[in-house]
Design a protein that fits this description.
By secondary structure, the chain is an alpha/beta fold. The chain has helices at residues 2-21, 39-45, 50-71, 90-113, 129-141, 158-174, 185-189, 237-248; strands spanning 31-35, 75-82, 117-121, 149-156, 202-205, 224-227. Helix 5 (129-141) links the parallel strand 3 (117-121) and strand 4. The longest helix has 24 residues, at 90-113. 37% of the residues are buried. The model is unreliable at 1-11 (pLDDT under 50).
Length: 258
């Protein structure tokens, strides 16, 4: 009974926060993508090893997932590990590869309760077996959930994704499954890892950096971009709500005249 009361109080507090921010629930972005940046600098400021920043950032993943669920975002894609991140020191890479296992071991039960569905985009072939096992378990246990899609971009690079699409289309043209005249934006998008997801309406990047870093270059063509100077471990649900509110104040024209 106490546990249910605690959950009700937490949800009530979140709802009050949403009302205070003046968020229009009828105009929430369907898909929010986040480049989670600044873990290492957050740790350096505190005289801590970089891995301390990554572990603290994992707590932010939980808070922002809950915030996205509360505001009724349909898809939350988190850029967790890029194809370029393999260049980092081996001990840091090993720690980052173990974070999904650690996060899902502690949070999967609540994700199931919240009706969240876990997914992943990126090349799986280079990921350690323990990372894949944790993700596969989460995908299986949340497969039939119908709420927020929590989509981890892991060992993901947009250029690699687009090259994969070109190669697959080329094979299908060669095999007679696709005619060259059929190739258009819609067909190309159907070969991407996000083929069954809406393009991001809003991209958030933390830590003050102003670049896309090889993230969803095709899908972000008409996304609204919102940059924060806050390092990811310090990014709160209120920061997230600020991004949503800013999104709602913009006019999306997709290249059309005002």
């Amino acid at each position: 009974m106490l546990d249910k009361l605690t959950r009700w109080m937490q949800k009530n507090e979140e709802s009050v926060s949403l009302d205070e921010f003046g968020i229009d629930r009828a105009n929430v972005p369907r898909h929010v993508a986040i480049i989670m940046d600044g873990n290492g600098r957050w740790a350096k400021q505190r005289g801590l090893p970089r891995i301390a920043g990554h572990r603290s950032g994992m707590k932010t993943v939980k808070e922002i997932t809950k915030a996205a669920d509360e505001v009724r975002v349909e898809v939350l894609t988190l850029y967790a590990f890029s194809t370029e991140n393999w260049k980092r020191p081996a001990d840091e890479v090993d720690f980052l590869m173990r974070l999904p296992q650690e996060f899902l071991a502690t949070e999967l039960e609540e994700l199931v309760e919240r009706n969240v569905r876990v997914r992943m985009v990126g090349h799986e072939n280079k990921l350690p077996s323990y990372t894949l096992a944790a993700l596969q378990e989460a995908r299986e246990k949340t497969l039939h959930n119908t709420g927020l899609i929590l989509n981890f971009a892991l060992n993901y690079g947009s250029r690699a994704e687009m090259l994969d699409a070109v190669q697959m289309i080329s094979r299908d043209v060669k095999d007679g499954l696709v005619e060259e005249e059929q190739i258009d934006e819609k067909l190309f998008a159907s070969y991407l890892a996000t083929k069954d997801l809406p393009d991001p309406d809003l991209l958030i990047r933390t830590s003050g950096e102003l670049r896309l870093s090889n993230f969803m270059l095709w899908q972000l063509a008409y996304s609204e971009l919102w940059f924060s100077n806050v390092y990811w471990p310090d990014f709160t649900k209120h920061d997230f709500y600020e991004a949503i509110k800013e999104y709602q104040q913009r006019s999306r024209r997709y290249g059309a005249l005002t």
